[in-house]
Amino acid sequence: MSPRMTWSDIKKAYPDQHVGLADVEFGDHNEIKSAVVMYSETNTSKNQIFEQAIGGKVIQAYTSPDKILNLGAVSK
User: Fold this and answer.
1) Using CA atoms in the order 7, 12, 14, 20, what is the torsion angle rounded to 10 degrees?
2) Closest CA to 45 of 53, 36, 34, 33
3) Strand, helix or coil for residue 53
4) Comparing C-alpha atoms, which of 31, 27, 25, 35 is closest to residue 4?
5) Is residue 59 within 8 Å of residue 39, measured between CB atoms?
6) pLDDT at position 23
7) Radius of gyration (Cα) for the chain, nearest Å?
8) Which helix (H) or strand (E) is 46 found in, with range?
9) What's the pLDDT at 74?
10) Is 67 in a helix, a strand, or coil?
11) Whole-number Å distance between alpha carbons of 76 and 49
12) How far apart are CA 34 and CA 43, in angstroms?
């Protein structure tokens, strides 16, 4: 387990990775201010991180969200 880090420091330490975060401190608009990194793609598969998040053990986040193209669809 890593020490508490700011979101900025997490993004620098784990670039372009999914991370599993614990003890998350949120800001005004639900942005991550700081957290403890429990899992990263350097030591855990992306699927295992998602499973931990679904189980409520961590919050999953991607450290480079500005590089993701979010697509959506609307149907009737």
Assistant:
1) 0
2) 53
3) helix
4) 35
5) no
6) 95
7) 13
8) helix 46-54
9) 65
10) helix
11) 33
12) 20
Q: What is residue 13's three-state secondary structure?
A: helix
**Structural contact between residues 35 and 23, judged by C-beta atoms closer than 8 angstroms:** yes
What span, in angstroms and rounded, lies between the C-alpha atoms of 20 and 42? 12
Q: Which pLDDT value is given to residue 68?
A: 56
Distance CA 76, CA 63 (A): 34
Q: Which amino acid is at 22?
A: A
DSSP state of 44: S
Distance of CA 12 to the CA centre of its chain: 13
Alpha-carbon distance of 4 to 8, in angstroms, equals 12
